[in-house]
Amino acid sequence: MNARKTFETLAKEKAPGPSPSFQLFHIIKMLEVIAGSSVGRGTLSKELGIGAGAARTLIERLREEGIIAISKQGCVLTQRGKRLWKKVQNFIPSKIELERSQLTLSAYNVAILVRAKANKVRLGMEQRDAAVLAGAQGATTLVMNKGKLTMPHEDRDIEETVPETHERIICSLKPHDGDVIIIGSGDNHNTAEYGAIAAAWVLFGDND
Predict the structure, then answer these.
(1) 191: domain range?
(2) How confident is the model at residue 45 (pLDDT cuts 50, 70, 90)?
(3) What share of the chain has pLDDT > 70, as a percent?
């Protein structure tokens, strides 16, 4: 099973039973947290911003699929889990927080780098809609083309419009031609980050 199908299966409702109170972006965030160090259910619940029951269900799901193992120290990634997390890292290798600017929509903003997906971006509407469905206020999509960071199908150079934000993105995320920057904006850090991840997922292909 490829990475896309694996994530979508993990997030899918299982019958019989109630709908899961977690989404695909929670799973991606969970892998990131566990990859850093072994953690317990309480820490995961806090880091992901979900209830203890949802965290317990999510942990059990990933354990059943052989993605995590549970030890006295907490949850750890298995070899399969590490491979899955590596694919996520290859797709979205870095992220940063951004302050409010003309590019952002809220006080909380998280920008993520998406490698080599500029050819899949249309007008950025799909990313915005995905972010809103994830609970964010929206998302701003930028593409790197010929050494310039621009909005899709616009020639306006972001460096001229918001030079400080542009410098932070370039220096921290280091995009190359063909890369995409997605900025998720929300009422808090989690909703901003989840919005960015959900928006990026639109660009995630079956072969990634």
Answers:
(1) 92-201
(2) very high
(3) 96
CB-CB contact of 31 with 22 (8 Å): no
Contacts of 142 by beta carbon, 8 Å cutoff, 6+ apart: 103, 149, 150, 151, 158, 169, 180, 181, 182, 183
Minimum mean pLDDT range among 12-16, 72-76, 136-140: 12-16
Using DSSP's 3-state secondary structure scheme, residue 50 falls into coil
Last residue of a domain, one of 61, 88, 115: 88
Q: 0.85 exceeded by the pTM?
A: yes
Q: What is the CATH number of the domain that holds 150?
A: 3.30.1360.30
What three-state secondary structure class fits 49? coil
- Cα(26)–Cα(199) distance, integer angstroms: 13
CB-count burial class (<10 Å; 0-12, 13-18, 19+) for 37: exposed
Position 121 pLDDT exceeds 60: yes
Mean pLDDT, the chain, whole residue set: 92
Burial per residue of 114-131, b for 16 or more beta-carbon CB atoms within 10 angstroms, e otherwise = bbbbbeebeebebbbebb
Q: Which of the listed residues 88, 110, 136 is the one where a domain comes to its end?
A: 88
Same domain for 67 and 164?
A: no
Same domain, 39 and 107: no
**Omega prior to 20 cis, within 30 of 0:** no
